[in-house]
């Protein structure tokens, strides 16, 4: 690696303009230069982190490099949702913030690389590269939490307590998806965001099946209603842990108690949220 690398900045500007079909980001980093850096200082299975993702040049550099040398490098990109300027080309194109630009660039790069791979012969022992990526946003919790510190000393406080009790019963924020709740459950259980998750069809419902690096399995059932058939099918799969929504039992304490006992007998850790 030389001490100085010369590359005209307009090369990266023109490339990104062609890829995104418009000049929507000023002064993007050159992904080809970044790929040289990454190749020089990392191994083929390393994890590269960029805390100032911008237009996503680092992601493209790693995806391109993996394609060239068969590497399995991964990346984590972090970017504040900094608003794009009003009346800018980016805003007119539908990108409200910089993070949106980076996400779309990664999607287009993956699509381009996949299309380049179509029709190419691969050796039988050569697995297809995993070019998927996930996007996470920092937000408030999906479940209302109980605050045991608030005092109750007057009629007014009592009404507040009543409202808190009702919120504790219906504790799931209504504007959140099941996937939102799933990843909070994983994080609260100490599982990483990179956990492999599959969806199982059991009885009349869906169950998320998460597998740890030690091959332990946790079932996360986020159905609005659970019944005996669904619970028995989950037990029959013999996971290490099962998590359900407490509200899904709809006050059926007998079913919940029987479930706790039966899972305990089978060596399954069971809890509700």
What's the end-to-end separation, in Å?
53 Å
Please report the number of helical segments: 9
Number of domains: 2
Beta-strand content: 5-15%
Question: What's the assembly state of these chains?
Answer: single chain
The neighbouring-strand order within the major sheet is 3-4-5-6-7
Give the helices and strands as they follow along the chain: HHEHEHHHHEEEHEHE
Gyration radius, rounded? 24 Å
Mean pLDDT, nearest integer? 88
Structural class: alpha/beta
Q: What kind of sheet is the major sheet?
A: 5 strands, mixed
Shape, per Cα inertia axes: globular
Uncertain segments are none
Overall description:
The chain is α/β, with parallel strands linked by helices and 273 residues long. The chain has two domains: 9-117, no CATH class; 175-272, no CATH class. It has helices at 9-20, 31-41, 57-69, 89-92, 98-117, 155-169, 178-188, 228-236, 253-265; strands at 47-50, 74-77, 196-202, 205-211, 217-221, 241-244, 269-272. The strands form two sheets. A five-stranded mixed β-sheet has the order 3-4-5-6-7, sandwiched between helices. A hairpin with a 2-residue loop joins strand 3 and strand 4. The chain starts with 8 loop residues before the first helix and ends with a strand. The relative contact order is 0.07.
In short:
By secondary structure, this protein is an alpha/beta fold. It is 40% helix and 13% strand.
